[in-house]
Specification:
The complex is a heterodimer of chains A (about 350) and B (about 350). Chain A is an alpha/beta fold. Chain A is built from 11 helices and 12 strands. Chain B is an alpha/beta fold and about 350 residues long. The N and C termini of chain B lie far apart (about 45 Å). The chains are: A alpha/beta (about 350), B alpha/beta (about 350).
Chain lengths: ~350, ~350
């Protein structure tokens, strides 16, 4: 169904088609039937090309984190296909997936929860090597030191524990741990949202440097539109489990076509008082509906200023409207948002 | 300026800790008129939340507060809790970051608003109910009559925060304090809540002290801005002056660190090397000097006073920097280009 921005000249390193992830919400009583299904991701399709950054933005509960976790089978896909370098990942055994994970690593949001407080920083960074049987006493310590240097940490602190490091430094440790296996793809799940702005800037710069140096592809999951614009080549916007718009970043930010993307951009504040005074905000009514009982047809229709009857009856496909700019809307219209 | 509704002079807050005195706020002075919005920005631990708590007298008993906070001519510092109780809500109201914990989960929304309305002055239950419905409508709650019988858990985060705003404006306070009011919310919901806050200000004519780390929110809401660093005001200016002519290197660093969603830039973000200092036993010198690319010997030995910078429009623009005039004429964040640290190490484990 969905024809998203597929580039025929390059082959994607990660190719996702019609990904569906549902969670059974279990009843708290024993032997009771499962009460409801959370439709976390419903038919997402996108490609990630080598060395590029695809930003995945949306508000809480839109399914962006679940999408990221599904890439690593940390959330089990209900249906659909995820291909890494042409190889299908859905349905792989734990062991087979383990092999592939060397090329597919993740950096988590919380720099405090994602490091084991009882392991030294060096041990944490070395652990992926040990898990994949690549640790040797001769080369291991050198690799750890190199990974620390790559992320801007002094290797002489490898014997320290996480509590001695600041939030930004811990996030660098998490990045070093993900890098040590030389992955081709890095899933970045809100890597800077827990950090203060001045520290956040350092981590964003670091990620750009690493991509330039190693040609890693990033799937950057974030809610901050400004950060995503800064780091991404292409951007996908998610709403309630579906990708509603995907395009090159310049197209998406300068001429968004989906009413949700437009509202999102118009609501995001700008650190520019003169621009702020001139802005006309599109204020959406109400809240995001529950993913256990999503609206029929277009999921955005309950809050959409353009909604018509057709929006309740037919799910709009994600259709390429030229220049790899795909939109899932019955009434798409490019609009400049200030 | 007309008679200010808030007047803070030389406010200092410190806590006695095992490691010595922790100076959370050092020498804060400002005045605010009706309907004025003061943004207080700074990073974690800069003292901005402690400032807000000091203004409404909610600091723990262990806090040592000096200086003066006058609201509508009445002194807050040193006031007995019993008197303070009367002022909260009627003269000064607070909107906290997390609307789940600032509403009581076992009472209905209606009960909580009616309680606020009736706690200051004689109002009958029926009158209070009418007033509660009006307050909910003003803060943008759809179907306010039905909302009265709802419990907080039935509302989303944005709706709850609007209920909190309704309660805050219930007694037309002179000042509202909002501590990161939209940080827990999604961006489309943030826009709704900020709109409610603006209409609450118009309705009550209150002044607003908006504590936030989000410079975008400040740019859209504030008239004047205080930048705090290590418990100190390092810059104070009206919003345009602050964003377009920052006069303290730390402000430059903050502004250069945030990307924009309105334009493309392949430029690197400016990153401030190092980490904020601990506020224990301040040693002297400018607290930002260890991270400042422009720091000279004088910065390490003498703490700069908060003094005026020349402005084109004659507005008050204060900066705590020995080189404030040079810094104010530099392009934003230019001094941080190439100032990145090569390798970072762990913090010294002295605390």
């Amino acid at each position: 169904m969905a024809t998203d921005s597929t580039d025929t000249t390059r082959s994607p390193v990660l190719s996702v088609r019609d990904l569906v992830v549902h969670f059974q919400k279990k009843s708290s009583l024993p032997f009771a039937k499962p009460t409801s299904v959370v439709h976390a991701v419903c038919g997402s399709s996108f490609d990630l090309f080598p060395g590029e950054t695809l930003g995945l933005v949306g508000e809480s509960g839109c399914g962006k984190t679940t999408t990221g976790r599904a890439m690593l089978q940390l959330a089990e896909p209900t249906s659909g296909s995820i291909k890494f370098d042409g190889q299908e990942l859905v349905g792989l055994s734990r062991k087979e997936m383990g092999e592939i994970r060397q090329n597919l690593q993740i950096v988590f949001q919380d720099p405090f929860g994602s490091l084991d407080p009882k392991m030294t920083v060096g041990q944490s960074i070395a652990e992926p090597l040990a898990i994949h049987g690549r640790w040797t006493d001769e080369e291991g310590p050198g690799l750890v030191a190199e990974a620390m240097r790559h992320v801007g940490l002094d290797p002489k602190f490898a014997s320290r524990f996480p509590n001695e490091f600041s939030g930004g430094q811990r996030q660098r440790i998490g990045i070093a741990r993900a890098l040590i296996l030389n992955p081709k793809v890095l899933i970045l799940d809100e890597p800077v949202s827990a950090l203060d702005v001045s520290v956040q800037a350092g981590v964003i710069n670091l990620l750009a440097d690493l991509q330039e140096k190693f040609g890693i592809a990033y799937l950057m999951i974030a809610h901050d539109l400004s950060v995503v614009r800064h780091v991404s080549d292409r951007v996908a916007v998610m709403y309630l489990g579906r990708i509603v718009e995907i395009a090159d970043k310049v197209d998406l930010y300068s001429a968004p076509q989906h009413p949700y993307t437009q509202a999102l951009l118009s609501a995001a504040p700008l650190a520019d008082p003169k621009a702020e005074r001139q802005r006309k905000r599109i204020i959406l009514e109400g809240d995001v509906p529950s993913p256990t009982n999503p609206p029929s047809g277009c999921r955005f229709r309950t809050r959409c200023p353009k909604a018509q009857d057709i929006c309740a009856n037919e799910i709009p496909d994600l259709i390429d409207r030229g220049q790899n700019h795909a939109v899932a809307c019955h009434f798409p219209e490019a609009m400049k948002i200030i | 300026m007309a008679q200010p509704v808030v007047s803070v002079k030389g406010l200092e807050v410190s806590f006695a800790t095992e490691g010595g005195m922790l100076n959370a706020v050092r020498g804060l002075t400002f005045e605010l008129a009706e309907q004025e919005v003061l943004g207080i920005v700074g990073e974690s631990g800069s003292g901005k939340s402690v400032t807000a708590l000091a203004l409404i007298g909610l600091l723990p008993k262990t806090a040592v507060v000096k200086g003066s906070v006058e609201i509508d001519g009445e002194e807050i510092v040193g006031r007995a809790e019993k008197d303070m109780y009367k002022m909260r809500g009627s003269k000064i109201a607070m909107i906290f970051q997390d609307p789940m914990t600032s509403l009581n989960p076992v009472y209905t929304i209606g009960w909580q608003i009616i309680e606020a309305v009736r706690s200051h002055g004689k109002v009958s239950k029926d009158e209070a109910k009418v007033r509660a419905i009006e307050l909910l409508r003003l803060s943008g709650i759809p179907r306010p009559e039905a909302a009265l019988d709802s419990y907080p858990h039935e509302f989303s985060g944005g709706m709850r925060q609007r209920v909190v705003i309704a309660i805050a404006m219930a007694n037309s306070p002179r000042v509202m304090l909002a501590d990161e009011p939209t940080t827990a919310l999604d961006v489309t919901v943030q826009a709704q809540v900020l709109l409610s806050l603006q209409s609450a200000l118009e309705k009550t004519k209150a002044a607003l002290v908006l504590v936030t780390h989000d410079l975008g929110v400040v740019a859209g809401m504030a008239n004047r801005v205080i930048v705090m660093y290590a418990g100190r005001v390092v810059e104070f200016a009206n919003v345009d002056e602050l964003f377009y002519r920052p006069s303290m290197p730390y402000t430059h660093g903050l502004l250069g660190a945030i990307p924009s969603h309105a334009e493309d830039s392949d430029e690197r973000l400016s990153q401030i090397p190092g980490a904020p200092p601990t506020m224990l036993n301040h040693a002297g010198g400018c607290p930002f000097a260890p991270r400042c690319p422009l720091a000279q010997d004088v910065c390490r030995s003498t703490e700069p006073a908060l003094e005026p910078v020349a402005t084109a429009d004659g507005s008050v623009h204060l900066s705590a920097c020995h080189f404030r005039d040079e810094v104010s004429s530099m392009p934003v964040a230019s001094m941080f280009k190439g100032a990145e640290q090569i390798l970072e190490g762990a913090e010294d484990s002295g605390h």
